[in-house]
Amino acid sequence: MYTYKGTLTHKGQTTTKGVKNYPVREFVVSPDTTAKWVQEVKFELSGDDVSLIDDINENDDVVVVFRLSGRKYNDKYYTSIIATSITKSTSFNSNKDLPF
User: Is the separation of the CB atoms in 26 and 52 below 8 Å?
Assistant: First the structure.
């Protein structure tokens, strides 16, 4: 498991995938939204975990615990970043609202 800290910049809606209509929800986190070139990382929640992000709002500082998942399909390789937990963080960027 890995950990990533940043600001939630996008929270997608729950959609379904595959023949079994498996629930999936994507969200994006940026480690520094004020950088010249903002880095944004897309995470995925699936199954019963899609509700883990319900009480978190865009622009909240968060800590994401995740695992990497990879697969091969039609001779192409695909990688997913699967979030296993997401929590609000008050200590990540506590100076965010200061005027200096």
Answer: no
pLDDT over 70 (residue 93):
no
Report phi then psi at 53, rounded to 5.
-100, 0
Cβ proximity of 81 and 65 under 8 Å: no
Q: How many CB atoms are located within 10 Å of the residue 48 CB?
A: 8
Which residue from 74, 82, 79, 70 is spatially nearest to 1, judged by alpha carbons?
82
Whole-angstrom Cα distance, residue 25 to residue 2? 19
pTM to 2 decimal places: 0.83
What is the DSSP secondary structure assignment for residue 14, as one 8-state letter?
A: P
CA distance 26 to 82: 9
What is the three-state SS of 35-89? CCCCCCEEEEEEHHHHHHHCCCCCCCEEEEEEEEEEEEECCEEEEEEEEEEEEEC
48-63 confidence digits (pLDDT tens): 999 999 999 999 999 9
